[in-house]
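Dear support,

I submitted the protein below through the web form. The confirmation email said the job was done, but the results page showed an empty box. After a refresh the structure appeared. I'm attaching both so you can tell me whether what I see now is the final result or a partial one.
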Amino acid sequence: MIERPKVDTAYDENQIQVLEGLEAVRKRPGMYIGTTSSRGLHHLVYEIVDNAIDEALAGYCTHIEVDILPGDVIRVNDNGRGIPTGIHPKMGISTLEVVFTVLHAGGKFGGGGYKVSGGLHGVGASVVNALSEYLTVTVKNEGKIHEMSFERGNKTCDMHVTGETQETGSCITFKPDSEIFDETVFDYDILLTRLREQAFLNAGLKITLTDRRGDETKQAVMVYDGGVRSFVEHLNRNKTPLFDDVIYIWGKKGDSIAEIAMQYNDGYNETIMSFANNINTTEGGMHETGFKTALTRAINDYAHKFKLLKEDDRNLSGEDVREGLCAVISVKLTEAQFEGQTKTKLGNAFIRGMVDSLMYDGLSAYLEENPASAKLIVEKATTAQRAREAAKKAREATRRKTALESASLPGKLADCQERDPALTEIYIVEGDSAGGSAKNGRDRRFQAILPLWGKMLNVEKARLDKVYSNEKLMPMVTAFGAGIGDEFDISKLRYGKIILMADADVDGSHIRTLLLTFFFRYMRPLIEEGHVYIAQPPLYKIVPRGKNRTELYAYTDEEQAEMLKTYPGAEIQRYKGLGEMNPQQLWETTMDPERRIIKKVEMKDASLADEIFTVLMGEKVEPRRDFIEQNARYVVNLDV
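What the results page shows now:
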């Protein structure tokens, strides 16, 4: 077990500082948890778990247990010191009640209860309480077991002692309020990903997630003595590392600590995850900037010093040295300043210089001590540089060609009349036959059609320079009008909705996956900002017998079964492809906004999405086979 130095300040009622009372959280929940969708629902769990992790950072908690109980009730149990239960000196009520009913009441506001903290202990607890149908808290401290309960933020009983114990810790059980949240069903995999991150970031801390819903109990026990090094190994497990080492750099300045772990793989994409006080800073910040600057400088200095780059060679760019890089940056500091309410970007300026200096010295030392690995890194970066220059030339050639042509849009694009992107949509259609039906069946006022043709490139296995020469991808880039890669500008997007319309079979699924891989790797804002949709064509055409032979359509096997109950003996046609439908049928079933079914592509977790694309579309076969074996039972309508 990793031993952490314990804070020497007492943790009792005197350390809980009150800044303001609990306001109308239930009226404006988005102000506190961002959204009432699935993301906000899971955020409730993170708020409670983060408080337990703060106890681990303080040197007390060693085990956190998260249970998903029947009815989607959450129970979080830790063996920390237990939330203080004495009478609060300012409020005159039990401190436990203060923590769960007063916003901005906690041990992180100057009371000395914690040196380093990610969450805002008290803010999280009170907000979760306000947004729960019911919440019960049990605290073990000072030799006693204390209990208190609430409903929708209001206490239903005062804190009372229910027994004696020599153990310490807090146990919080809550059920999210269906009056607040759009959905109240927890996703085990989403919680698993987040909790695994926390276990990696806090070496030696044991976190157990157990799903007790259903007949079979699922459980994951996570404890990683290797910390962020183990995190990088986990992120790279489906890829082929350039060398076995995980480079690890650690340093401290005052009360601030920085950890960096990194390893290169033979892929073309970079994966950099940064954290501040265990919070995933998805928008980066000063610590990530310091890391990137030092990485580029250290590799260039080494390459020139040991003649791996010639004197007249241009320096490697940051993009070059980060190709195939997998890195985790974790900083812990007092008074962390997060930009934005969602706390996704670190703003403390001093941490940039600290990480820069630490990273440069540590990486420079590693490169000199490991010349074989250093050579592989520099060679990969120089290859990336050549590919980037080739991509630049191809991009410029494409621009020149476009400028010389009378019409800059792809020849097979049937554009729409409307020019306001908020009102337009483009269908990416598999095959010229279906493309022809779509062009004839569409509403040309706002619907554009682009048929796919030529060979589809799997961008997971190719660099950007190959994209520019691909006859299937580049027409899309030109039609969208927003560019590609680091030049992508979503403000120039010509269509508000990009709808993928492919056959409902294995080939159609493969094409959709290839396109989504392309969007994720080179046009990610399309997905992040909700512009990508998948059309749902019908699986069956059903024609009742008799005089009433109106064509009906079923989109699932269940719908087909229900229709056949109403129209027994009806004629059934299983569509094998979009090309089997005439323009009118395609409009009625798949393109008419009043009747169609389209599904928005959303990304709940970028790191999990990155992992899935690597598994499904990457070079290694074993991870893909494992994925198929684990998920085969969920497949329906594979290819009828």
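Response: this is the final, complete result; the empty box was a page-load delay. The radius of gyration is 28 Å.
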